[in-house]
Amino acid sequence: MKLFYYRAKEGNFGDDLNGWLWEELAPGRWSDEADTLFCGIGTIIGNHMPPASRIRIFSSGLGYRPVPEDFSTDRWDVVALRGPLTARVLNRPERAIADGALLLSTLDRLRPLPEAERGRPIFIPHYEAMDEGDWAAACATADVKLVDPRQCAHQVIDEIRRSRLVIADSMHAAIIADTLRVPWVPVSSSGRINSFKWLDWSLSLNLPYEPRILPTATLDTAYRDGVRRLVGEHYRLAHPDAEGALAHQRQMTRREQRPWWMSVRPKLKYHLLALPRRLPQPPAVARRIATWNRRQHSRIASALEQLKSEAGFLSDDRIFANRVDQLSVEFDKLVRSG
């Protein structure tokens, strides 16, 4: 089979672990020349995929794109889905299991560490948020370790394993923390944080999704959030719940199925994002913006200071073990079938 997953130009550990996890679990079963795609961890159903006679879905999810037009054909082999929301949209409720990253728990070298061997809390932003604020300064003030999600996946996973609490803006920071039995607290730094995705996974483990909204990092971030809302790329719900997330997903799907909108949106987004750079910025305005941004960093530090003292969430051991068993059985069957 040929691995297919999202590859962020900057790097994103949650997606990047596809590059080695499946080979470690099933050595020698993967080839770039194969005509069957294997889609594992990530929100990739509906993404543009390379030509293939067969597409096998193992724990992938929906989140941004409409369901592929040929999804009801035999070309798609749905083995497992990330959670019940993706399963409801695809009308495959029997295939809802959990995110494939849970199989990290089957690797001996990633066994949970004793509490005494765990260090201070860490904060892992969404990979696209890393350049939008002075996270390092805020974390230093709060005595929370900043972990860059664009680093090597092995390094980020090790940081998670060695912490006593993970403050997770990145969804896979929470998923892998739970997998390694490290408590986690969900936060949201902007409208790019996708409530549908988070609920899809959290419901798979009977967990609540109650994110804490972080203060906006910079004025530029606030403006970009406004642009996202205008062009239909604002994915955070004010009060996330399953029915609201499904309704929002249907609304996004309808919008994305309008050819005129899909033609106009990239240009509109580009010009709106470029607008602040084209406007004159007198020194007095620049100073006011800098002052506002510093205050926001102080507010973020205060929020992190409070969050690091929380107990955090952790899925029930029995539910977690059951999902790992289900994923393991389905993965073994898939590998044996070739």
UniProtKB/TrEMBL annotation:
Q: Which named protein is this?
A: Polysaccharide pyruvyl transferase domain-containing protein
Organism encoding this protein: Sphingobium yanoikuyae ATCC 51230
Provide the Polysaccharide pyruvyl transferase domain boundaries: 96-190
